[in-house]
Amino acid sequence: MRTVANKWKKFEVLKQHGGVAKHIPHMQPFSEAALRAMLDRYRFVVAKPYIGTGGGGVVKVEKIGEGRYLTHYRYTEKIFTGIPQLVRYIDGIRRGRQYMVQQGIDLARVGGRRTDYRVKIVKQPSGVWKITAVVARIAKPGLFVTNLCQGGHLMKGMQALRVCFPKKAKDKRLTMIGVARTCTKLLEQKYPGISQLGFDFGIDRQGTVWILEVNTRPH
Residue 209: how many CA atoms within 13 Å on its side-chain side? Predict the structure, then answer.
């Protein structure tokens, strides 16, 4: 079973397809200049490692005023004045690892808690790819990440979608499945031998579907 750990490389493949690219958040390799540019453009951004699982090392950075930034890392919130101070803090978390800065997505929520969706697709012995799960992951209160290993919990995908988008739940589910299937074709062409994929989708409050992450070894 082939795995591809590098998140950036997977996104680079997917961005080549126009229909998929519109579902990919803006992102740049982490640097002081990239962080500055992204925070000028978006209300909040997410710094995350190229290689990592379970939401480890993910830092949310929110602009809260002129030159002032609020970070959310695990259960800790800190306020920084100026980008250089902020970069030093994130560098301490990165410890030399490659990171990206990703556009923050204001997710539609269930019970006030951040909610995203995992669509799992598995290659059957016949060679056909089959959707085996569409579930919602709901963040633990006070946490930014939804990962189960960090206290998130599961809900049936349609159940959560009906809470967030009562009239468009089926449409949102079909969009996620359609995008996942297209992405699977693209990734299999580039990385023959992959046999299962887990797509993490976020849907913002306006109803736009975003690909947050793709895993070749989904739990």
Answer: 24
| Total domains, the chain | 2
The rounded distance, in Å, linking the Cα atoms of 129 and 87 is 42
> Where is the domain boundary, 103, 122, 141?
103
Quote the pTM value: 0.92
- Based on the domain organization, do 92 and 164 belong to the same domain? no
Residues ≥6 apart with Cβ < 8 Å to 161: 117, 136, 169, 170, 172, 173, 203
Domain hosting 63: range is 27-103
> pLDDT tens-digit profile of 91-146?
999 999 999 999 999 999 999 988 999 999 999 999 999 999 999 999 877 666 65
The CA-atom distances, in angstroms, between 1 and each of 9, 18, 93, 117, 122 are: 18, 28, 31, 24, 11
